[in-house]
Amino acid sequence: MLEIHEIPVTPFQQNCTLLVCSDSGAAAVCDCGDAEPVLARIADLGVDVKQIIATHGHLDHVGGTYALQQALKVPFWFPQGDAWLLAELAQQARMYGFAPITPPVPDGDLPIGVAVKIGNSSLEVRHCPGHTPGHIIFFDPADLQVVVGDVLFQGSIGRTDFPRGSLTDLTRSIQQQLYTLPAQTVVHCGHGPTTTIGHEAKHNPFVRAV
Ligand SMILES: [Zn+2]
Q: Model-level pTM?
């Protein structure tokens, strides 16, 4: 199965995830906002990271990716719909008082419908625009778990007041791409605790199932 380890990083307490195939030890890092704590956890677990992926292009989700790439020498796959955000990353780091960073250069796109292979496990890429236009999520249909970045949180939803955000798009993404997943699916959020699709579809005060 696919084990998902959450590693809170940056002053924004963004949940970077270390995705590990328990059969093979092959792993992927998703949303590396800061490399150092992630490298420490990789060493602790002794897993073999083969790739880096990201849900979207905000600083707290990709700010540590260049450093992680330099350390691990593995490819970085990124949704092209958010490429414009990578171009603004150094400026964002200055604005939020982060240490200077080098923007990562993706090795390729993560197109919708593609399967991200991690050892014997496989993640389905789904497009969930609204928080950012290129935002994607990663669904693990075998183990019923999903990594959603900043689309959905426990009792909340992603902000839509950033440039090119859209509440209409975000609502549609949640209703069509998330609330249609099995109710028991565990949701790993970009910030805060995990939740389930069933709980949010019923109780989320911002977006309910239709
Ligand atoms: Zn974000």
A: 0.97
